[in-house]
Design a protein that fits this description.
The structure is a homodimer. By secondary structure, chain A is mainly alpha-helical. Chain A has a domain of 139 residues: Tetracycline Repressor, domain 2, CATH 1.10.357.10. In chain A, α2 crosses α3. Chain A starts with a helix and ends in a 7-residue tail after the last helix. Chains A and B meet through α6, α7, α8 and α9 of A and α6, α7, α8 and α9 of B. The structure holds a DNA duplex.
DNA sequence: ACCTGAACACCGTTCAAGT
DNA sequence: ACCTGAACACCGTTCAAGT
């Protein structure tokens, strides 16, 4: 997803130029400025820990004029939308991959789904904040974003219903409500982490992933009908 | 907490001037500019729905020069800290008041605590976002913020331990973990609301409070040991 | 003691002009 | 077709100068 010239621009892979067309070196006039802006913005966000990156600084780092990005993005929100889309695709791929490796029981796949979401949020905290807060871009303007999110949401509801009919999950609560409850808990855990609230709860950054996964496991186990796991 | 001249400046309460000292009308040179800045910033945030308000716009609305607020706030973050402190005091007062009116059983007081938190977040969505995201101010630099948050957190853990020893809550999970789980769920619900994610889950803005309270109730009931409520 | 208003270094965004 | 660079209207912040 990240283009090859990014590797070159960081001077980490001396052989990267072999894989590039020679005539596009240090020139973004041939159709790849769009991706360069996205990659550099992501890089900048990861470095600073702030999802609110400046288009001017992106342009500066790429070595292009301040107005150039506006050839490829209508405004700041459009760039943020593109970044949010890439991050959401990563979530979707992660979820799909992990689901294939999960034990088949619906309640275990539900647990796996939660773990995937947590891992995604903790691995890409800045992207997660951008995507989830939805203040720097127009969520409803992106069909891709909507469809990826709906897919994850529908998978959650479906797994809850399956786990209920498999007798592993309480069935005295509507599946939609149970799904929202689980999602809220997982979302809340991820947000407490990126919002820096876990320190107050005695959870250091090193232990965050392990601790949150254990907390999610306790939640799911608490809602099991057949207690033995 | 809001000063009287704010009511006057909105022209909604024609008798407000009776309650003011006459010689301070339209003059902020006598020690009340600080509070005026806080009140106007809060007002602006509530109107726009954006917690990231501009100091220049606040000054403009008050009718003061752009540099004036810097007499009372070291920088933008210091103003945000003051706003966050006021919002957190409101949470603390709300929690204390509701606890006094709650049924005495620890598990019911835990439920009440969750409802208070939800009500606070839904009543002041912009303040909640400011306070919780912690990106526009320095949380650790405010002893008041830290102490209010610690008080709510400690109350949560204490109530969980009490509910466990009263036999109403599963005791096979460490109280700190159970408390973090409940807090994450409630925090996640509140954030899903202010982040505009509830629409995707079939919950309209009108039904949000009722639906989230019911979801929280389902969570607590799911963790009861004595099922009958 | 408190506020003014110009100044500085930043933004996002637009647009004629260049290649 | 794509980018430059000046321009405009905004920011936060500083500070000499005023009252």
């Amino acid at each position: 997803m990240r283009s090859a010239y990014i590797a070159q621009s960081t001077h980490c892979q001396p052989f990267a130029e072999d894989t590039m067309p020679n005539d596009t070196t240090r020139r973004y006039h041939h159709g790849n400025l769009r991706q360069a802006v996205i990659d550099t913005a992501l890089q900048l966000a990861d470095e600073s820990g702030d999802e609110r990156i400046s288009l001017r600084e992106v342009a500066r780092r790429i070595g292009v004029s301040s107005g150039a990005p506006f050839r490829h993005f209508a405004d700041h929100a459009a760039l943020m939308t593109a970044i949010a889309e890439e991050a959401t695709v990563r979530l979707r791929l992660m979820v799909d991959r992990d689901q294939h490796q999960s034990p088949p029981a619906a309640i275990e796949r539900l647990r796996t789904l939660g773990h995937s979401f947590l891992a995604w949020a903790l691995q890409h905290p800045t992207s997660f904040r951008l995507v989830s807060a939805r203040r720097l871009y127009d969520f409803n303007a992106s069909p891709a974003l909507k469809s990826h999110f709906q897919a994850v949401r529908e998978r959650t509801v479906t797994l809850v219903m399956q786990a209920q009919s498999e007798g592993d999950l309480q069935h005295d609560v509507a599946p939609e409500r149970l799904a929202l409850m689980l999602r809220s808990a997982v979302y809340g855990m991820a947000r407490m982490h990126v919002d820096g609230q876990l320190a107050q709860w005695g959870v250091g950054p090193r232990a965050a992933r392990r601790e949150l996964q254990a907390t999610l496991d306790a939640l799911i186990d608490g809602f099991r009908r057949n207690r033995p796991r």
